[in-house]
Amino acid sequence: MKYSALLFDFDFTLADASEGIFQSYEYGFSKMGLPLPARDAIRQTIGMTLPDGYTYLTGDTDPGHRSEFHDAFVAMADKVMVPNTRFLPGAAALLETLGQRKIPAGIVSTKYSHRIVDFLAGLGKSDLVGCVIGLEKVKAPKPDPDGIRLGISLLGAAGPVLYVGDTTIDARAAQNAGVDFAAVLTGTTAREAFSAFPYVYIAEDLPSLSRWLFREETDGEEEPRELFRTATEADLPDIERLGAAAKDTLTAAGIAQWDEFYPTGEDFREDIRAGALHVLYRGGRLAAMAALDEFQLPEYREPDWLYREERACVFHRLCVAPALQGTGVGKDMLRQMDRLARSLGYGAVRLDAFSQNSISLRLYESSGYRRAGTVYFRKGKFFCYEKKL
């Protein structure tokens, strides 16, 4: 495994403390004379700070009320939190496996440290983690990177570090700290929500995360069958190779579309810096890539767009590995991009395709995209397409 240390969120990542959280929320609301929130609504606050959770449920931003709720919650949590906390399936086994391999592990949470420390001590598992960093040990809560950086320092990690969490708050914290992120779908956050952030893997649960982490030790198991995520600088070599292969394939087919002027390595770098470029890996190899943003060239004023009332994004530079064309990768990539756009609040997608590239035209038309008009760029005629999400 390439990581020198792993850091974990706690609630809904390693453990389920929801019953204690429910009881503490209900006590706090009752003490303040407020209607009790539904438990499903409370569940959505797990991972937030207590004042932010209160505001999320009530809309009340009054500092005094936020503080009053915090104190009431803590008073009840001191009684019910630890007895009502359980490891999630596979959590103890994963931490034990890391320990056996001398890979240090730690916890970075918005929970108070003593609750996690007491929980581990009660199970006789204190030795499974090298540090526990709770809310009281940092200057600011996640997504501020202070907790992760402190964890890296305390663990003495000299190489790459992976942060594992179940919310987009965790994903943003990892991004801010400059470390790799792996998501587990054991909380309330949907898989699609993580597409807006850099990640190396999304696991259904901790056992599947463990299998991925130690895949090199399990009969040479390959990378996850399919992985769609936001591109990072580390992907640039793969991206530039795919771009070059696509140019060569188009040229050999007599399609004068991509050339030495477009797209360039700098185009891809700008996409990555903007968080716009997304990649699809299959079997550990880059299978497709595309960018998503709101930039529309002046020529986009010409087509007869049908969905003008919708907030629209634009797909750029969609590219499928030449060896995988005709295998369904292109359609899969479009489905992933459509899903991502929908999760970001867009109601429609726009794009353009070179009129001589019949493969691209068939792909878009068979994927539900409607031809909206014709524009002309440096290379000639392009057809514009749109799709309502």
UniProtKB/TrEMBL annotation:
<feature type="domain" description="N-acetyltransferase">
    <location>
        <begin position="226"/>
        <end position="389"/>
    </location>
</feature>
<dbReference type="GO" id="GO:0016747">
    <property type="term" value="F:acyltransferase activity, transferring groups other than amino-acyl groups"/>
</dbReference>
<protein>
    <submittedName>
        <fullName>Phosphoglycolate phosphatase, HAD superfamily</fullName>
    </submittedName>
</protein>
<dbReference type="GO" id="GO:0006281">
    <property type="term" value="P:DNA repair"/>
</dbReference>
<dbReference type="Pfam" id="PF00583">
    <property type="entry name" value="Acetyltransf_1"/>
</dbReference>
<dbReference type="InterPro" id="IPR050155">
    <property type="entry name" value="HAD-like_hydrolase_sf"/>
</dbReference>
<dbReference type="InterPro" id="IPR016181">
    <property type="entry name" value="Acyl_CoA_acyltransferase"/>
</dbReference>
<dbReference type="InterPro" id="IPR036412">
    <property type="entry name" value="HAD-like_sf"/>
</dbReference>
<dbReference type="InterPro" id="IPR000182">
    <property type="entry name" value="GNAT_dom"/>
</dbReference>
<dbReference type="InterPro" id="IPR023214">
    <property type="entry name" value="HAD_sf"/>
</dbReference>
<dbReference type="InterPro" id="IPR023198">
    <property type="entry name" value="PGP-like_dom2"/>
</dbReference>
<dbReference type="Pfam" id="PF13419">
    <property type="entry name" value="HAD_2"/>
</dbReference>
<dbReference type="GO" id="GO:0008967">
    <property type="term" value="F:phosphoglycolate phosphatase activity"/>
</dbReference>
<dbReference type="InterPro" id="IPR041492">
    <property type="entry name" value="HAD_2"/>
</dbReference>
